[in-house]
Amino acid sequence: MLLYDSKLAPNPRRVRIFLAEKGIVVPTVQVDIARGESREPSFLARNPLGGTPVLELDDGTHLAESVAICRYFEETQPEPPLMGTDARDRALVEMWQRRMELELFRWVTGCFQNTHAFFAGRIEQVPAYGEVCRKTARDRLAWLDGELAGRPFVAGERYTIADVTALVAVDFGRVVDVRIAPEQKHLMRWYEAVSSRPSAKA
Amino acid sequence: MLLYDSKLAPNPRRVRIFLAEKGIVVPTVQVDIARGESREPSFLARNPLGGTPVLELDDGTHLAESVAICRYFEETQPEPPLMGTDARDRALVEMWQRRMELELFRWVTGCFQNTHAFFAGRIEQVPAYGEVCRKTARDRLAWLDGELAGRPFVAGERYTIADVTALVAVDFGRVVDVRIAPEQKHLMRWYEAVSSRPSAKA
Fold this sequence. Notes:
homodimer; alpha+beta; Glutaredoxin; Glutathione S-transferase Yfyf (Class Pi), Chain A, domain 2; four-stranded mixed β-sheet; 4 strands; 6% strand; globular
């Protein structure tokens, strides 16, 4: 087994945090996105879409998509559960994971892709859309602050993959000036809690 | 149990097709998005993000996000499996489901949201970004055609939730002039196969 990782990108960090929470160590190789390594033919043979992370299984299967890789490890090492414990809980965790992905992470990365110099010349940027993303990401942080008023973690009483996605989104948000506001006390309390876990350093 | 459904929107259709494939019948109420019913306080109490579908469980829990609702039914009625059969297969299905969602469905809906009259005045539209979405969606259909050269369904030998998402994306794509090209013969063969299943009428 071999994990193709990229230290600077947000999606691979989701897998690294997930693995750290599980206590799983996987042999890892770094893919230098800035130098274009993920667009080279040898890498595209592993993932034709050119994204990291990619997990190479021992049978030669290549698994891309961070959440799909997390699902593989959740199935092969269920403890501690990070994706739910029964039908209702698994569905609720998936709901919150998707909300963190589609309602927070997506807007942060959409802002980065459409406004940041890193992507200039790599993709067709639309700065006006990047601004819509930035505003929406800030709105979603305010919404999440209200949600966290009633519970310790994003999906309930337990730390889950939804917290992983939200943490990575909040940390990556700094790059595009999307930050927790001082008055968002529930969100700040949650952020301090999840950031102080050893897995956050992954 | 009660499913809040919207006949005209693509996300609820994903759940309806999934349920039809499982042979599950759920009491359903229609939410009229065009008339703004999903933005009324009574509906926002069920899903503060205002999206459909929402599944109300008998204990009063509200489950939003179409894939999370599908996950609930996959767990409670595993046959026929639509989200994988073992750790590796579940991860591969999730990879393809996410690819269909993030690499196809997202671009189609992004084009619709940023160019279509339905969203004028409802959200801040950026037409130039809508055009990027349209072009990317067409590129992704060409990529998917190549992928389908080697297997009958999106995730392999078996019909899965990845086919549901792809079918809904392709059908919704017509609204924004994203269509399978005549030379995309593998994609067309797949489309004809999944469209002729009874579930496609859901």
